Amino acid sequence: MLELKELTKHFGEVKAADHISFQVGKGEIFGLLGENGAGKTTTLRLLATMLKPTFGTAAIAGYDLVKEPEKVRSSIGILFGGETGLYDRLTAAENI
């Protein structure tokens, strides 16, 4: 379902995501944990095809992140924080 192979993103000399590899199978739940600046958001932006990797690749639902970005985007949903239009006092289900 989700497989990362050596996924890497550099911004100049800064290694924002450095050779990340893992797999998540169908039905599994996972989370990205780490300190500020650890590369969590960069990794998610890579997986959402918002950024192109410097090195490595990933497959989402069998689609290659680099070669098939349109198919990746059509098979995922992602919402980043900030001005989302969501209400803090509501539950996730109520916001939907």
- Spatial gap, N to C terminus: 25 Å
CATH class: Alpha Beta
Strand order of the largest sheet: 2-1-3-4
**Number of DSSP helical runs:** 3
Q: What overall form do the CA principal axes indicate?
A: globular
How many structural domains does the protein architecture include? 1
Q: Low-confidence runs (pLDDT<50, min 5 residues)?
A: none
**Beta-strand share of residues:** 25-35%
Main sheet, how many strands, which sense, barrel? 4 strands, antiparallel
Helix and strand element order: EEHEEHH
Structure description:
- The protein is α+β, with helices and mostly antiparallel strands and 96 residues long.
- The chain has a single domain, classed as 3-Layer(aba) Sandwich (Rossmann fold).
- It contains three helices and four strands.
- The chain is globular and about 40 Å long.
In short:
The protein is an alpha+beta fold. It has a single domain (2-95), classed as 3-Layer(aba) Sandwich (Rossmann fold), CATH 3.40.50.
